[in-house]
Design brief:
Number of helices: 8
Bound molecules: adenosine-5'-triphosphate, zinc ion
Number of domains: 3
CATH architecture of the largest domain: 3-Layer(aba) Sandwich
Oligomer: single chain
Strand order of the largest sheet: 2-3-1-4-11-5
Number of strands: 15
Length: about 280
């Protein structure tokens, strides 16, 4: 019994998908142009596919699970379950118009021609906002459409926005925030669900570890209470005495989001020799 996972064969999600599996301790060797491979130490078969096809394959149970952008899941409208957000491949689906044009709100799009590879999501957005526009579906290089007179606006994926800028466009509406997700077939059998749970357990441990850092510092005992109170830790921080009297070593785990703010407060409270180290896995 093997679980079959579909990932993008090349493109923006490929490296991070492979890295995630590797960090889950799953050994994979993949040669370019190889359509599928088997993990060496986990009952997992890996299929390499175009990202747009992944939801369909998962719906049809050709693959049991898959890694794909939420944008593709919503656009393809296939019957699959989103199991877990994966924390990479972040982008947004946005409407952009010529930089020189004025924009006063969604009604500015009324009657315009919008070029996009996401007709379903654009149509939903227009309907939600009671606006009518002509949707021109094109499969790639959407950003050049206004420049060549094919459309008045575009709706495309954006991360930094630099592609829009180079093409003389400005972003005016965000219609979706997206990141890579793990999807699953709706009718997995109990054996497959067991394997999926095993994989999910590892994915969650890797995600947690990525979002957290291990911190070690020296604290003067007279301010130890204050310093300890600043640190959350998994249960509570570890405190061990230093060889030098009057000092303790404090160990804890810090979340990436609150990291810098807490470090500043720790310094103010007299913490010294602060070391921050990455965590490889984190299991609560
Ligand atoms: P394929 O050949 O598999 O169809 P593609 O060209 O459609 O590849 P990529 O450009 O590799 O797809 O993007 C794959 C996914 O990466 C997108 O669907 C999206 O979820 C995510 N992504 C993250 N940032 C961006 C970005 N700036 N532009 C496009 N996609 C992005
Ligand atoms: Zn694609």
């Amino acid at each position: 019994m093997k679980l079959k996972i579909a990932i993008q064969k090349s493109g923006r999600l490929y490296d991070d998908s492979i890295l995630l599996l590797k960090e889950c301790g799953i050994g994979i060797s993949h040669r370019p142009n190889q359509l599928k491979t088997e993990a060496s130490n986990f009952p997992l078969e890996i299929f390499f596919l175009r990202d747009d096809d992944i939801p369909q394959y998962v719906e049809d149970a050709v693959a049991d699970i898959g890694v794909v952008g939420e944008n593709v899941v919503f656009e393809t409208e296939k019957q699959v379950d989103v199991v877990e957000k994966l924390g990479f491949g972040r982008c947004r689906l946005s409407i952009a118009i010529n930089r020189t044009e004025t924009y006063t709100g969604v009604s500015s799009i009324h009657g315009k021609r919008i070029a996009t590879s996401y007709p379903v999501l654009v149509k939903q957005f227009l309907q939600r906002n009671g606006v009518e526009a002509e949707i021109h579906e094109i499969s790639g290089s959407v950003e050049i459409a206004p420049g060549i007179g094919l459309a008045d606006a575009i709706c495309d994926l954006v991360s930094s926005g630099s592609t829009l800028l180079t093409n003389g466009l400005k972003e005016v509406e965000t219609i979706l925030q997206s990141e890579a997700v793990l999807i699953r077939n709706l009718h997995l059998d109990p054996e497959q669900i067991k394997l999926l749970d095993k994989l999910l357990f590892r994915i969650k441990a890797v995600k947690k570890a990525r979002n957290n850092k291990y911190i070690l510092l020296n604290a003067p005992n007279h301010n130890l209470q204050k310093i300890v109170s600043l640190l959350p830790g998994m249960k509570s921080p570890t405190v061990v005495p230093l060889a030098e009297p009057g000092w303790s070593s404090v160990h804890s785990v810090l979340n990436e989001n609150e990291f810098w703010e807490i470090i500043e407060k720790l310094k103010e409270a007299g913490a010294q020799g602060i070391l921050v180290v990455p965590i490889e896995k984190m299991i609560l």
